[in-house]
Amino acid sequence: MESETIVFGGGCFWCTEAVFRMIKGVESVDPGYAGPVHKRSSGPTYEEVSTGMTPYVESARVIYNPDDIAFPELLQVYFESHDPTQQDGQGNDIGPQYRPAVFYTTVRQMDMAEHYIKNLSLKYGETPIATSVEPLVEFYVAEDYHKKYYENHKGASYCQLVIAPKVDKVQAKFKSLLK
Fold first, then answer.
1. What is the distance between the alpha carbons of residues 57 and 55, in angstroms, rounded to a whole number?
2. Do 44 and 58 form a contact (C-beta atoms < 8 A)?
3. What DSSP line would sit under 53-77, residue for residue?
4. What ranges do the domains of the chain cover?
5. Residue 1 pLDDT > 80
6. Could you say which of 30, 35, 89, 94 has the lowest number of CB atoms within 10 Å?
């Protein structure tokens, strides 16, 4: 089967990238910005998106092989690695650029993500799920210094305090899905 692409917005793209880099069947992960077509072909910059005044979401583009990992498994990892109830942010990363969103590239992904959220809503009861499901319009790869950020900066405070706990949680909960 051919590789497929899904884009996950789950707060800071460093976290989302680090989580999906460990998952079997994932061929590549790129941090970047999901949103509309940009006026420049190179897309928005980190500085622009960081203001929270653009329509772009810090996201991670995940290219995966459906023969090696099922899309529902990717959804499980995604929903366990972010707070699906937090609107416009994740933890201390606050703003619309950090909002949780699934940017699908196929109708099947859309249907499965919406079904997953419907079932997840039962678990959370009165607390609404803030994670949106939207078609991917455009994805712009982030500047090079963002790529493999966790891998290259494990000693940094943000990596130790924010990313490492998410990585540890996924490693503990999804041992059978790790590379």
1. 7
2. no
3. -SS-EEEEEEEE-TTTS-HHHHHHH
4. 4-177
5. no
6. 94
**pLDDT for residue 171 is more than 80:** yes
DSSP 147: T
Q: Which residues are catalytic?
A: 12
Nearest to 116 by CA among 175, 152, 75, 82: 75
**Number of neighbouring beta carbons within 10 Å of residue 172:** 8
pTM for the whole thing? 0.95
**Percent of the chain whose pLDDT exceeds 70:** 100
> Residues 8-56: pLDDT tens digits?
999 999 999 999 999 999 999 999 999 999 888 889 999 999 999 999 9
CATH of 4-177, one of 3.30.1060.10, 2.30.110.10, 3.40.50.2000, 1.10.357.10: 3.30.1060.10
119: which 2 tokens? 């079932």
Q: Of how many residues is the chain composed? A: 179
CA dihedral 93, 150, 42, 136 (to 10 degrees): -70
Identity of the amino acid at 117: I
Q: How many CB atoms lie within 10 A of CB 92?
A: 11
Which stretches within the chain are classed as H helix?
13-21, 46-50, 71-80, 107-124, 149-152, 157-158, 164-173
Q: Which two tokens stand for residue 108?
A: 């099947």
Residue that has been written with the tokens 């650029």 in this structure: 97
